[in-house]
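Researcher: Here's the sequence for the chain we discussed earlier.
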Amino acid sequence: MISLWTITVLLCAAIATTTGLYLSWRQKAAVQKHRGQVPAAFADNIKLPAHQKAADYTTARLNLDSIAQIIALLLLIAWTMGGGLNLLDEITTSLGFSGIWGGVLFMLIFFLASQLLDLPMDLYRTFSTEAQFGFNKVTPKLYAADMLKQTLLMLIIGAPLLWVILSLMQGAGDMWWLYAWCVWGGFMLLMMWAYPTLISPLFNHFEPLPDGAMKTRIETLLARCGFESKGLYVMDGSRRSSHGNAYFTGLGKAKRIVFFDTLINQLKEEETEAVLAHELGHFHHGHVKRQIIIMLLMSLAGFALLGFLAEQSWFYTGLGVTQHSHHAALTLFLLVMPAFTFVLAPLMNLFSRRNEFQADAYAVANSSGQALITSLVKMYEDNASTLTPDPLYSSWHDSHPPAPIRIAHIEQCLKKEPVA
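Model: Thanks. This is the structure I predict for it:
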């Protein structure tokens, strides 16, 4: 049944996909245009072959992303107007499941089917594109083991969570969405606390940062910045990829500082310290807390909207679903919302970039700003990150400032009296 709602969803999804393809085209044109010459600001540190590798790697990833965007649009149509969700409902009913457990099974099968449909692209990305540019370290055996663990975790954690939310949708009255949001928010906070100690070790091996000059330097920085953590760890990131990174994880006293072993091997001690000082800047300025609050507020708005849509018959019929149910409402909501929320990306990235600038300024004030620059340049080169992004594409897709802008900002901070 074609309705105004049907047209609205299809139009927004088509606009989102077309915009994504246009931005990818702009990005490819920008990186290929500058492929033949390293930008002047980086010419002393990055050689032309590395710059060209970054351009080719960026182009290859963009080509895959463009295909993925088209497939995502086709799958949205197939699941909704194409009758996919109706077929899934028939399958769960034929298996003898109904009510809340029928809804749980419906959604678990939907997630598993989505994972399988994404599998070919992910396999190609991992074993072709990433391997072609020397980044992939994952073996087929490890890939299969990771996928099995992810599936089991989805069943063990996801099934009970879905049961609680669907139970609230069915029996908690008109304000079910508020109670469901409380459950979801509590679950997210719990996962932030539990992930570093219970889940992440299922996929990677973590070892305490060895004693020595590096550890002493980092502990001195932490003490100087008044930061407490549960430990400093090195993760075997090289087991899956040659990309390097460092991150904080956990909440409260369960916070951990994790370095990829690839990053430790790439950077000098003072450069690693500068990278960590940048991350400490996020905590100093309260970015992490604000991100959690924004996440909770956005999910509250989402649940409130779902509470309204779940009561509207046009929400189902306009998307090809004949059997109205709580699990159908939740699944439809997850399917169609990206078509409307993609326009928020530039705004979210604008706030994120502001945070990155503040964290960089903090790092300059509490470590070596020049070491921060050299560490970023090394990571740009080692990760084959383009130095010449299209501004419009970057504003839509990049949470961090483009390399030239970020380096220029750090250099400006170096000229000023450092203030944390």
